[in-house]
């Protein structure tokens, strides 16, 4: 029957088209999947990933443009990480050091400049948070994994990445590791960190 052969043929065509599309999609995904940051050789990372929600920030801040494209070091902006509990978010004055002249025609930079002129900072929302009863210190971990280990500061993003993922490639910062008790404790077990409850809880 004429109509029957026709449908079979177009069905076969569709299957072929779907298969081709699938192979193409896979080819597109592969480089994306393999480009996660390498783990520094002196760290045994705990297993576990997390798919955090998108956070609606006052200005979408593209880490990728700064870190990946313009090679700005994490600690240039998160200056407190090496010496205190918090890593800190840079003040607007730091942004303006560049953005008084860079990309001033862009909408997001004009919005940033308005904050600056009103002497305000965008109210960045927290992306990663542990409860208040948990003790965590950036300084301790960076001292251990960067400075005491003589790991080049240039490659610090790989150390941050164990707990934060590849932030430098993100268009918007997202939580990518669980950062729950199991994650912290498994890393302490594997890397000679403290196991006592009171070290993390006081
Ligand atoms: C040019 C400055 C700049 C650089 C460089 C930079 N950041 Fe950020 N970072 C920010 C700003 C601004 C925010 C707040 C906006 C946001 O959360 O998206 C932020 C947020 C974050 C957050 C989420 C904080 C939270 O609320 O929990 C993490 C994690 C982070 N940065 C890690 C990194 C890492 C790792 C690198 C290096 C690979 C890096 N940053 C480089 C400016 C910077
Ligand atoms: C051992 C795990 C670990 C490493 C390594 C680490 N962080 Fe964090 N980071 C955390 C945790 C946990 C929080 C949440 C802290 C809280 O809520 O008190 C956090 C919070 C942050 C924040 C939010 C603001 C703040 O200070 O609380 C920024 C920004 C940040 N980290 C950047 C970095 C950067 C940049 C590096 C590397 C230089 C880094 N972190 C390395 C675990 C880590
Ligand atoms: C060391 C210089 C430097 C600092 C500091 C800096 N930026 Fe940037 N920023 C850049 C460069 C370079 C670009 C890319 C410009 C381009 O692609 O045209 C950029 C791009 C951006 C963009 C994207 C603009 C667009 O729409 O294309 C935003 C938003 C932004 N920066 C916000 C910030 C904020 C917020 C801070 C402070 C937390 C900051 N920047 C600090 C250099 C800097
Ligand atoms: C990459 C592995 C790793 C991860 C992930 C990690 N830690 Fe650690 N942590 C260590 C190591 C190693 C030390 C020991 C550093 C030293 O000897 O100074 C340490 C030290 C500490 C200390 C200091 C204890 C003291 O002596 O004062 C605290 C508190 C702590 N971690 C809490 C946490 C919490 C909370 C988390 C999860 C949010 C976490 N850590 C995630 C490896 C890790
Ligand atoms: C390496 C750090 C670390 C150590 C050691 C640790 N905890 Fe925790 N604990 C955490 C973190 C981080 C959380 C927060 C979990 C979350 O937000 O999901 C937590 C949460 C908790 C909670 C709240 C309930 C829950 O499960 O979320 C209890 C209770 C607790 N811990 C008890 C203990 C006891 C008892 C020990 C010792 C056997 C201990 N912790 C050792 C990091 C640690």
Topology, element by element:
Layout: H1 2-34, H2 63-69, H3 74-77, H4 92-99, H5 107-117, H6 138-147, H7 156-164, H8 181-191, H9 197-200
The structure holds heme C (5 copies).
Radius of gyration: 23 Å
Number of DSSP strand runs: 0
Bound molecules: heme C
Q: Which sequence of SSEs, written as H and E, runs from N to C?
A: HHHHHHHHH
- Overall shape: it is globular
Distance between the termini: 80 Å
Number of domains: 2
Count up the helices.
9
Class based on secondary structure composition and strand pairing:
mainly alpha
The helicity comes to 40-55%
Oligomer: single chain
The low-confidence parts are 1-8, 26-34
Mean pLDDT: 88
Estimate the strand proportion. under 5%
Q: How does the major sheet shape up?
A: none
Structure commentary:
The chain has 202 residues and is mostly helical. It has two domains: 36-88 and 127-202, no CATH class; 90-123, no CATH class. Helices cover 48% and strands 0% of the residues. α4 (92-99) crosses α5. The radius of gyration is 23 Å and the shape is globular. Bound molecules: heme C (5 copies).
What would the keywords be for this entry?
2 domains, mainly alpha, binds heme C, 202 residues, 0% strand, single chain
Summary of the model, kept short:
With 202 residues, this protein is mostly helical.
